TrEMBL record:
Name this polypeptide is given: Hydroxyphenylacetyl-CoA thioesterase PaaI
One matching Pfam family: 4HBT
Organism: Sedimentitalea arenosa
SUPFAM superfamilies given in the database record: Thioesterase/thiol ester dehydrase-isomerase
Segments forming domain Thioesterase: 52-125
GO molecular function: acyl-CoA hydrolase activity
Gene3D superfamilies in alphabetical order: Hotdog Thioesterase (3.10.129.10)
CDD domains: PaaI_thioesterase
Family the entry assigns: Belongs to the thioesterase PaaI family.
NCBIfam families: PaaD, unchar_dom_1
Amino acid sequence: MTPQERADRSAAAMWAADAASKWLGMTLDKVGPGTAELSFTVEDHHLNGHRICHGGYIFTLADSAFAFACNSYNQVTVAQENAITYLTPGQPGERLTAHAVESARTGRSGVYDVTVTGEDGRKVALFRGLSRTIKGQHFEESQ
C-alpha cells in the first residue's frame, strides 16, 4: 500500500464517523501523508455578535484539518495541545480553507501547522497542533 493510499483509507474511515465536521458544513478536500485540507462556507449560524465568523468555528475547522493530517498514517492519533492566533475575520458567505502540514513527527509525538485562509488568499488564522499516537488503527492492516 502506498503512503497516499494509506492516507486516503484512513481519512475515509475517519470521515465516515466525523459527525461534528459534517454538521458544521465542512468538506474534506484533500489528504496526503501528514497533510490535509478542509473547508466550509461561513453561514449565518457561524456568525457571532459582530456578524463575523465565530472564532470557535475557525478553531474547529483548523482542528479538523489537523486531525486528518496527523491520522493519515493509519495510527489512531489524538490532540495533545492546540493553539490558534486569529489574524483577520471570516466574512459571511466566504469559504474558509484550512491547510494542515506536518512540521515534525518523532515516535508517538507530532507537530502540525495549519493555516486558515479566506477566498482571497489572506490568512485568517494560524494554528499549531501537537499530537500523540495511541493504540489502534483506522482500518485493518498488517504491520
